[in-house]
Write a structure and sequence with these properties.
about 190 residues; alpha/beta; Rossmann fold; six-stranded parallel β-sheet; 8 helices; about 45% helix
């Protein structure tokens, strides 16, 4: 059992803040996201705007508390879209991690950067809950990080296969502090 899983099962999700330094990891919030367009086409643009607002609130709180903010950017092609400028402004001076796959740890310096800065817990938010966010959460747990999430900050396609959705939602509930709402997550970014 990893330290993160031990923490989640012995302390109980959401009862106490994790004992380590916390960083915010925001996944693939790029200006030209296929998922974003899909949501807007199906009338779910309001949901994206609400969740994006919550993510910006957390990023701003993390910045104000002096916590590290990491923004991932998927760069599969030469003309990969930029990270949303409103999010960059909310995050201050974020660490940008460019990735070519679903995860953000393999083939990048993310783990080294987090460890060098004493980070042991991650608040993960962003696109796409059922793909990239899930992959990054799994990678973080495998490396012993505590993972915190909030449904208020995770965006996933309603067209996702129902079996995949059940597995993913079950994973988040079993292995992360997933039931926290965005206001509860703000407590992790209080100034010391």
């Amino acid at each position: 059992m990893t330290n993160a899983l031990a923490y989640c099962t012995t302390r109980g999700a959401g009862k106490n803040p994790p004992p380590q330094k916390v960083a915010m990891v925001i996944v693939d919030m790029q200006t030209d996201s296929e998922l974003r367009r899909s949501f807007e086409r199906t009338g779910h643009g309001r949901q994206i705007n609400e969740k994006f607002g919550n993510i910006c609130r957390l990023a701003s709180a993390a910045k104000e508390s002096g916590s590290m903010v990491v923004l991932t950017r998927r760069v599969n092609k030469e003309d990969a879209p930029e990270i949303d400028s409103n999010l960059v402004a909310a995050a201050g001076t974020p660490v940008i991690v460019e990735k070519t796959g679903l995860g953000a740890f393999s083939g990048t310096s993310l783990e080294e950067t987090l460890r060098k800065n004493g980070v042991g817990a991650l608040v993960i938010a962003g696109f796409d809950k059922y793909k990239c966010v899930l992959a990054i959460a799994k990678e973080a747990l495998e490396r012993g990080f505590v993972v915190l999430t909030s449904e208020d900050t995770l965006i996933g396609s309603r067209f996702t296969d129902q079996i995949s959705k059940k597995i993913t939602d079950g994973f988040f509930m079993a292995n992360t502090l997933a039931h926290e709402n965005v206001d509860a997550l703000l407590k992790y970014f209080k100034k010391p």
